[in-house]
Design a protein that fits this description.
Strand 5 and strand 6 form a beta hairpin. Strands 1, 4, 5, 6, 7, 8 and 9 form a 7-stranded mixed sheet that branches. The chain has helices at 86-99, 127-146, 152-166, 225-230, 238-258, 261-280, 291-307, and strands spanning 19-33, 38-39, 43-44, 48-66, 75-80, 83-84, 109-117, 178-181, 195-197. The protein is 35% helix and 19% strand. The longest helix has 21 residues, at 238-258. Helix 2 packs across helix 3 (152-166) and helix 5 (238-258) packs antiparallel against helix 6 (261-280). Bound molecules: (3R)-3-hydroxy-3-methyl-5-(phosphonooxy)pentanoic acid. The site of (3R)-3-hydroxy-3-methyl-5-(phosphonooxy)pentanoic acid has 16 residues, from helix 2 and helix 4.
């Protein structure tokens, strides 16, 4: 069922809980057709599709207890890998401000958020996707305690809806396998509000597909995704790019069905390079790839030519 925004406003909470603890883990994902450019409250300018990864995860625990004696709208602290983290606190405050209308219990409790990753954060391997998805799942676990009759399907849809408001690509990290986010005319149930599992036929060759992350640069990137998305607003090639992404998602469906790896590689690599071409032609222009990123790409092409094996690359908004 396709839901609308009003379906995510909560009804009255029948249950009352004074304190508790919930935990959730969410993986990162890597887009095959990329989302780059957004409008309104985190709606994508084009539909995207990703593979959810198995091993790059964020694990989050949320302790909560009824708020007492504080004027603060949101009372919470964030501990990343055991240490209080003010940068994440800022991001999470913005996230809470955006989602409080859908999860009003955020104002009722004091929270302690403990979170850790199995991989580096803020370096362009979608740690915000797994981070926001894990936090959204924790919040939905609290809401499920307050509204015990909630269906599993709605639990996941609303987790994805909330995660999107934290970081767009995070809405795809709620499900495993291939996940679509953004309305696409040929993908039933696809929505700009949340991610959905790709339900069309997929060739078995993609069931065990393997992603390896080559860490070219583990440092924090110079231009954040939010800035990059914003630069698409008056980008000279924006409309052509959105159309290209839509067409790539159209043709990828046949490729996913047939298992044609040559065509798969062509689309996926072209998407990665198109994403970075948008960065290089933005005003102001910027580069996130590094010399070693290019060396690796050339080695992959050389290897493919020599062996005929279907090794390919993709890139997120980063050098890795
Ligand atoms: O979700 P954000 O705002 O971090 O943007 C992510 C954009 C890309 O990773 C480059 C592409 C994508 O679809 O994941």
């Amino acid at each position: 069922m396709v839901l609308t925004e009003k379906d995510f406003f909560p009804k009255n909470y029948p249950a009352e809980i004074s304190s508790g603890k919930v935990s959730a883990s969410a993986p990162s994902n890597i887009a095959l057709v990329k989302y780059w450019g957004k409008y309104g409250e985190q709606f994508p300018k084009n539909a995207s599709i990703s593979f959810t990864l198995n091993n790059c995860k964020t694990e989050t625990t949320l302790h909560f207890e009824e708020k007492i004696l504080t004027e603060k709208e949101f009372d919470f602290s964030v501990f990343f890998e055991g240490k209080e983290n003010l940068a994440f606190e800022l991001k999470i405050r913005q996230f809470f401000e955006r989602i409080v209308q859908y999860v009003p219990f955020l104002k009722e409790y004091s929270f302690r958020i403990e979170t850790e990753n199995t991989f580096p954060h803020s370096s362009g391997i979608a740690s915000s996707a797994s981070g926001m998805a894990a936090l959204a799942l924790c919040l939905m676990k609290i809401e499920k305690q307050l509204l015990p009759e909630m269906s599993e399907e709605f639990f996941l849809q609303k987790a994805s809806f909330l995660a999107r408001l934290g970081s767009g690509s995070a809405c795809r990290s709620i499900y495993d396998g291939l996940v679509v986010w953004g309305k696409h005319p040929e993908i039933p149930n696809s929505s700009n509000l949340y991610g959905t599992k790709y339900s069309k036929e997929v060739h078995e060759i993609f069931h065990q597909f393997c992603d390896v992350i080559l860490l070219v640069d583990g440092g924090q990137k110079k231009v954040s995704s939010s800035v990059g998305h914003a630069l698409m607003n008056d980008h000279p090639f924006a409309e052509a790019r959105f159309l290209q992404a839509e067409n790539n998602l159209t043709s990828l469906q046949e490729i996913l069905k047939s298992g044609d790896l040559t065509k798969f590689i062509e689309r996926v690599e072209s998407e990665a390079l198109s994403l970075h071409a948008m960065m290089m032609t933005a005003k102001p222009y910027f580069l996130l790839i590094k010399p070693n990123t290019l060396k690796i790409i050339e080695k992959i092409w050389e290897f493919r030519e020599q062996t005929g094996l279907h090794l390919c690359f993709t890139l997120d908004a980063g050098a890795n």
